[in-house]
Write the structure tokens for this entry.
Amino acid sequence: MNDSQVKQQIQQLVSFIHQEAKDKAREIRAKAEEDFTIRKLSAVESAREKIRAEYERRTKQIEVNRRMCVPRPPVSAPRARARLARNSAIARLCCARCIRTANPVTSARLHHARRKKKMSPRSAQSTETNAARLQVLKARDNVLRESYEEAEKKLAGLSSDPKKYAPLVAALMLQGLLCLKDSAVVVRCRAADLEIVKAALFSVSEEYLAKTQAPVTVTVDEATFLSDSCIGGIVLLSQGGSIQVDNTFESRLDIAYNQNLPQIRSMLFEHK
């Protein structure tokens, strides 16, 4: 086995591992979201049942107290004042304990308010600086997102021009074949691009043979097409679909965007 065959097998194994990892990550994410939704609904329903039960219990207790209420003997003025003072002290103590323990959100808000009052001018300036930096970062993210969307719109417009789109599809197909280096490859495309892809099969296969000295059989998957949301490009599959090269416009744009993100930021935001 020569070096080229070893590299080919390694590349196929890497592509297969990447695809399996992506599929597993999607399954884990979907399972986690489903479990979270189920637990959230269960917790909400349980809390509602507790609130209903507590409401009914208190309602019944009030009704019982009303029925069992009997007039009390009059209390003298000194004893009434002493009882009122004792009840007020107990109420203040219970209120303080409630704020510290039973309601952590209120306690945190009160702590934040006290800390804000005691904040030094230097701390206030630092807070304002951090807030300004966050606004700048948010504005930059918006600009980057708008640039990405603008590039996506331009790529979507290419598919409406056959003279520009057909050579691009052929180039994407050849690049995918060179990446897979397999003797049998299936091409999946949009339904609207079926004729363009079919027309490019022969020339691409001949060019691949000239570059690699190895024949390849390329077929088009006419049973399954890419989604209507796809703006263009193709997907190449080999080994029964276990290995694939995603050469759709969205995928190529994501790769180019992520690889050139530092240069894009430098061009947009760094001023000499």
